[in-house]
Amino acid sequence: MTTTDTTALPTSARTDAEGTGPRTPGAGKTAAERTGARTDDAALLITDARERIDALDDRIIGLIQERAAVSAVIQEARIGSGGRRVNLAREMEVLGRYRDALGRPGTALAMTMLELCRGRV
Ligand SMILES: O=C(O)C(=O)C[C@]1(C(=O)O)C=C[C@@H](O)C=C1
d(Cα 76, Cα 66) in Å, to the nearest integer? Predict the structure, then answer.
């Protein structure tokens, strides 16, 4: 690894030694440019919090994939028994749960999730 001494620069003007290769988003950018922050403290906080968000998003994506697999088992069982892929009454229950917990955007989220789990109707 080639290293450049950036310690003479203000932290906000440096790029991270790690994770800012030529293909890494944010490569060659200052912490301020990467985060939109105007102070080093804020840039650090944002960088840290973004790592937590990325970890949460990874888990959410994994849960959606797990949900889709369980949903596929149900759909296959129903189709295999002579029924239809879609069960609208159940979808209304799912939409209602998301709406109750998250409001109107929850409904939109649930509709997208159902599409991911059973395709377009
Ligand atoms: O609960 C079911 O009966 C399912 O088939 C699962 C599921 C879902 O992913 O939540 C998928 C398709 C149906 O239309 C309803 C719900």
Answer: 16
